[in-house]
Amino acid sequence: MGVVAKVWKVRGPLLGHVSKDDFTFHEETLPDPKDGEFLAEAVYLTVDPYMKGFGFQHKSGEVMSSIYGEMELANQVARVIESKNENFPVGTLVLNSQGWRTHFVSDGTFASIVLDFGDLSPSHALGALGMPGLTAYCSLMVVCQLKVGEVVVVNAAAGAVGNLIVQIGKAVGCKMIAYAGTDEKCAWLKELGADYVYNYKKKNLADTLKEAAPEGVDCFIDHVGGTTFATVLKTVRKGGRICIVGEISQYNKTPEQRDRIDFNSNNIIANEINIKGFVSSSYQQRAGEVVAQMLKWNKEGKVKFRERIVDGFENMVDAFLSLFTGQDNFGKVIIKV
To answer: Is 331 helix (H, G, I), strand (E, B) or coil?
Structure first.
């Protein structure tokens, strides 16, 4: 008799505003592992906004997972509890893309052994030492080719990626302008070293940019999209770079509801502004480099890793929905099973 796995599935494509009604809870009895396979039990799982952005790809009855284009990204750290695969002995922690489930059987495809982070929790493989860290580092250092002394704008700055961008920018020696949705988050971003921090719910974006960057912006990392993108674009100066990482303001909207933005393309041409979209899987070959640099900065006290730990697999959906309200979310949101 195999182990019983708890699973969250979707009722169908995630379109428009998402609620608990879009998910269903199930229990499944798994087969025993065959030769070359192993059985693993989830320890930490991740929820990220992009899961909603690409949720339209889901089909009814599918396990909720991190579908990103045609790829599935790592979404849990699991411990091997039974093994018939010598490459994954019992006790091994594996990073995998099995989705929102507590147990799974695998032959090792799309599974990798979690690196030893020393005194740091292996949960960081889903955060600062995983996809969010890779995104923060590569969007700034690879796409934007950040230089000392430049002016950088980042929105959703208290999130899993945003807070790392603030800290990396300061570690490089740049002027960081950050936006978040609560006064508490803004205070935290100031502690992290941001030069200017604004609560976007209380301040006019255009006015804050005039105050913080009167001579313009060199680099803009956008997580929000919509009219926010169009407003910041007007301030980007000659040779500026924009990296579009996400558009959380649009994820809960249907195609008909999405913001219709208006911007002057002549400004992009005249100022030779480089605008590039970002998909983290395209930079996976740099993962080792990023982990090494992030660990170095962390040891030096330049980059701190913060997580919000939510206990209990039954709280997966609530934790996911909280990403779109901003409640209590500082840094990376992790579910501990």
So the answer is: strand
